[in-house]
Amino acid sequence: MRKIILLVIIVLGSFSNLNAEEIKRITVGNKDAKITIIAFESLTCSHCANFHKNVYPELKKEYLDTGLAKIEFRHFPLDIAAFNASKVAQCNNDGNPDILESLYTNQQKWVKGSSVEEANKNLQMFLKNEGFSIDFESCVNNKNIEDFVLNDRIEGAKNFKISSTPTIIINNKKFEKKLNYKNLKKALEKRNNKQIITHMDSKIFNDWGFVSEEPPYQQLTLILEEEKQ
User: Fold this and answer.
1) Which CATH number fits domain 2-179: 3.10.450.350, 2.40.50.140, 3.40.30.10, 3.10.450.120?
2) Residue 125, pLDDT above cutoff 90
C-alpha cells in the first residue's frame, strides 16, 4: 500500500512546477572538483545506512576533504517514511549534510512503525532527541521541497535506470561493482588518473602552442621525430 501511495505521489509530482533553484543540494567536497559522485539513496534503506557507516568515512577522508572529488546526495525514496525523511533532511535548505548523516547513522532508532502516522511520530521524536530544531509539519508539507525530492527520483529512474538503492554515479557513469570502499576507490583512482593525463596533455599542447586534429601526445611524438631528422 505504501508503494502504491508513493507511486501516485511521484506521478502527480512529475507534472508540477519544480522550483529546484530554490532548494540547495546536499553536497560535500570541493564544488570545483573534477570528479563528481552522485549517490541516489533512500533513507529507510539499510544498504544505504551501511554505505554511510562503512564506505563514506574513508571516501570523505581521502577524496572529499582533499578536494579531489565532491559528492551530491540525491533522493530516491522507496516508501513514504523515506519520502518524509528526505524532506526533513532538506528542510533547513543550507546544503548541510548533518541531518541526513544522522538519519543514516541512527537509522534503527527511527525506522519503525506500522503506519505512516507512527513512522512520522518516531521520526519527529528522533529529531527532537538529536537536538535538531526544525518545524516538522512545515517541512513535510513544503511543496517546493516535495517537488525537489520527487524530481530526484524521477530523474534517477529516467537518466540512470535506477531501481534500487544505493546507486552511485561517477561523472555521469553508473558504478556497477559491489559497493565497498576498495571497489569504489579503484573506480575513483581510474577516473583521477584520466584527469591527470588529460591535464598533462593539455599542458603539452599549451607549451608547444600548436593546433592539430591529433591528440597532444601524438603531436609531441611527431615533433620529436622531425627534430631527429
Assistant:
1) 3.40.30.10
2) yes
